[in-house]
Amino acid sequence: MEGREHNLPVSSTKVYDEMPVRALSKLTGFHAGYFRISLSLCSQALLWKTLSEPETDAHALRAVVRLLPSAAYVLLWSVALAALVALCLLYALRCAFKLRHVRAEFSHHVGVNYLFAPWISWLLLLQSTPARFVRPGGGAQHALWWVFVAPILLLDVKIYGQCFTKGKKILSMVANPTSQITVIGNLVGARAAAMMGWEEMATCMFSLGMAHYLVLFVTLYQRFVGSSSIPAMLRPVFFLFIAAPSTASLAWDAITGSFGTGSKMLFFLSLFLFASLVSRPALFKRSMKRFNVVWWAYSFPLTVLAMAATEYAQAVKGGVSNALMLILSVLSVIVTIALIVFTAIKPSDLLPHGDDPFAPLPRVDVFLHVSPTAFIPFLSKCFTFFTCSSMSAMVMDICSLQYSFDLPTSFSFDSHPEKGERDRKEGLINPVRFN
């Protein structure tokens, strides 16, 4: 048996050794963009909680919700919690084993915005938590709110603080549709604070979010020259245009206690942006050719818009408002279920395959190997030049400098100098010639 093990081919042994490395590479390939899944599931849990509340006067939807068992909402909340915990653990592995990738993601104009997504997901999950688990308005809920909001405020200071100071990034150059996630984080935190009775903190978070939203909306709407565009595969993130004003309407409704004029204005803006995107299906044609994690960007904005429509239907009694709430709620549920089915059917298209979009550029180590004897002719020329007694002699010496020598030089783009020397001997790298 031992002899057979020693006779194993080197290539097969190498494959066995690389299997744990490949598995770890896939596990650490879950970048912050995968938190689109948790955003969708957590917002869907909050939508179902809103629809199941007794205050919600939606005859058609309440009839459907009443037909479902009481454990259905708890099951949905548990699935959202499990997905969020799993994604957080996977991203923790990424931080532990691929810290350079995380730093590159933090410096990326798209990747840095999705660093808000896990904290937004936790805030949405906190608002949708059943009363049996966390008492509304209790000390545990207040402590968790601070835990989830503190990273959002720190990221705000980091990102927007350098925009109006002498930072490396200018907002008009790096703004893109995903930048609205930063706004959504502040607005979700404001709504959560208002639901707990913290009016001052809710107003503070709302003012920060709306100030950033106004600047971002004007920047993205005018499309300043040099503004960073996004690839065609990321165009589903355009639906974030809907999510920002919808979340703002919900936050202002929670702060004021009624779905007043301000909330209605923001809700109508969301409807206009939704109609503008839906009427242009060709914009998303290329991104829909193959299933990937970006498809999950459709669900969260539609769910938040359905929640805003639910609050609007409570404020404005009528058939039109109820029909609007019914259509948007059913649409958000269908889209979420379709994404879950696609994820279950095609998990290989969703999982990372080693092509990390936020991978840093590889380090290039250049090794210069020069023989000391190669500098002797050159040094002699320099000595002759500097010891000339007249300017004419120096000029003539410059003109007559005809030297040709080979520097045994090799440039190796590898971390081992021996590889570059071997390539030079085999003729893959030519020596540098000075004539």
From TrEMBL:
Alphabetical list of InterPro entries matching this protein: SLAC/SLAH (IPR030183), SLAC1/Mae1/Ssu1/TehA (IPR004695), Voltage-dep_anion_channel_sf (IPR038665)
Location(s) in or outside the cell: Cell membrane; Endomembrane system
GO annotation terms (biological process): intracellular monoatomic ion homeostasis
Transmembrane segments: 71-93, 114-131, 143-161, 201-221, 233-253, 265-283, 295-313, 325-346
CDD domains (alphabetical): TDT_SLAC1_like
Keyword Hydrolase among record annotations: no
Entry keyword set: Cell membrane, Ion transport, Membrane, Transmembrane, Transmembrane helix, Transport
Family that this chain belongs to: Belongs to the SLAC1 S-type anion channel family.
Assembly with partners or alone: Homotrimer.
UniProt-recorded name of the protein: S-type anion channel SLAH1
Organism of this sequence: Canna indica (Indian-shot)
